[in-house]
């Protein structure tokens, strides 16, 4: 079957140009795959009707020579991004039945370039989790080993691309929620610079960390989607006005660069031996290719996660106060007055991890503890951010493993919240600092499970990040 | 930070959440464990460090005040759990 070769958007475009296929045929191909792989539970809703209607409209445009740059691309979106007249739940019972009145800016820009939105993807509730087990939609299976988690929180978005259920997918990354599942599923996953992509229409978890990221099989598809999604937006006053370079046309890489790796990541006792070996092997390859590779110390590493959790739980407790059962979403049937309606609605609607984070956030923001926890964490955040930026003024890139381990088994960390938090040990530095980071495949472990390597660059250096990532993918295959 | 059940109850009220006896005990344990772990930050010297309060480099973003579309009454009430013709309905506020 001709469609079997559709592993990159380049393939799709070629087939469309040759007249070998149509957007409708491509959408039907993915719809078929989604059905065959339904047990993976990546999609929580498939937009069969609206996707086929979009496809027909794009086919019409192609025949008139008026198609946009993403004609033929089929995209799944995480269940925290809103799409007009479609349901969205943030994988939470508290948003059951909620239908959006508008479309997220990032999603709208893709639609405007003729991408087809094929459905919404499972995730951890409000993006809170590292295994996609905290969800009202049921767990997602990793297609590399169905007894293991796909990572989280954007687990469904990862598996959708891994199992070839769509061309690329959108996730969100607050502390590693795109990069960690990308590592667990052998994909390319980016978290852009904070403020690079508008957050309008992204259901907020922690507003000073939240970013919209992309899963893809290769760097070029990722770069193309990013250059279309990124840029200023009147609906998000934090979104950056810096011009967006054409990332996908700037992938050529032929310079010698300076790369730092952090001693504390390589020597972390939590690091799986095969991941350490593959990371060191890649750094060696870089040296042989003539790049400068240097070990540096990052004594603040152990403080990155506690900083992240104090600040994100605080922001979450504030953001999630809007879910009160008054204007939309779930409402309890057991209330006798307004206050009990709030309390019962929220207690029945939110899952356990979300309630734990709201409680912790409310605690660190409460009058008696505000300075000791929240203000302290804001100060340490500044130190971590300045350290990271200074390092990236001396070096072009920081390279480190994306995760301490490969995909773990279901239930492995369910009883110990801190053990689950440590999954994000290597991904949160970029989130706390606001800088862009990408995870790309770096071989497999003894069990054949994918390993990821993470590259971090300075703020707004997405073009340099993509070019280096593409180069690393090439030398890794050589 | 040793969190006691009364503190959990107080925070739960502020967060408009409620827990049964077993839930309060579990939350007490989890919060104590996580806050202890977060207190590692006390080892970091932050003397003379200003807390960071925004991550965007954009400041004072201004735009023209232009008239735009807004949700119609009907649309705004579309997702309401309970409504009448014009308003969101909630349980009695005053007994």
UniProtKB/TrEMBL annotation, chain A:
Catalytic activity: L-glutamyl-tRNA(Gln) + L-glutamine + ATP + H2O = L-glutaminyl-tRNA(Gln) + L-glutamate + ADP + phosphate + H(+)
EC number of this enzyme: 6.3.5.7
TM segment ranges: none
Keywords of this entry: ATP-binding, Ligase, Nucleotide-binding, Protein biosynthesis
Protein name (Swiss-Prot/TrEMBL): Glutamyl-tRNA(Gln) amidotransferase subunit A
Residue ranges annotated for the Amidase domain, each copy included: 26-465
PANTHER family: GLUTAMYL-TRNA(GLN) AMIDOTRANSFERASE SUBUNIT A, TRANSAMIDASE
Purpose: Allows the formation of correctly charged Gln-tRNA(Gln) through the transamidation of misacylated Glu-tRNA(Gln) in organisms which lack glutaminyl-tRNA synthetase. The reaction takes place in the presence of glutamine and ATP through an activated gamma-phospho-Glu-tRNA(Gln).
Family to which this protein belongs: Belongs to the amidase family. GatA subfamily.
Native organism: Mongoliitalea lutea
A Gene Ontology BP annotation from the UniProt entry: translation
GO cellular component: glutamyl-tRNA(Gln) amidotransferase complex
Record-annotated active site: 78 (charge relay system), 153 (charge relay system), 177 (acyl-ester intermediate)
Automatic annotation (TrEMBL), chain B:
Keywords, in A-Z order: ATP-binding, Ligase, Nucleotide-binding, Protein biosynthesis
GO molecular function: ATP binding; glutaminyl-tRNA synthase (glutamine-hydrolyzing) activity
BP GO annotations: glutaminyl-tRNAGln biosynthesis via transamidation; regulation of translational fidelity; translation
Catalytic activity: L-glutamyl-tRNA(Gln) + L-glutamine + ATP + H2O = L-glutaminyl-tRNA(Gln) + L-glutamate + ADP + phosphate + H(+); L-aspartyl-tRNA(Asn) + L-glutamine + ATP + H2O = L-asparaginyl-tRNA(Asn) + L-glutamate + ADP + phosphate + 2 H(+)
Enzyme Commission no: 6.3.5.-
Sequence intervals crossing the membrane: none
SUPFAM superfamilies according to UniProt: Glu-tRNAGln amidotransferase C subunit
Pfam families the record matches: GatC
Described purpose of this protein according to its UniProt entry: Allows the formation of correctly charged Asn-tRNA(Asn) or Gln-tRNA(Gln) through the transamidation of misacylated Asp-tRNA(Asn) or Glu-tRNA(Gln) in organisms which lack either or both of asparaginyl-tRNA or glutaminyl-tRNA synthetases. The reaction takes place in the presence of glutamine and ATP through an activated phospho-Asp-tRNA(Asn) or phospho-Glu-tRNA(Gln).
Protein family: Belongs to the GatC family.
Assembly and interaction partners: Heterotrimer of A, B and C subunits.
Protein name, UniProt field: Aspartyl/glutamyl-tRNA(Asn/Gln) amidotransferase subunit C
The species this protein was found in: Mongoliitalea lutea
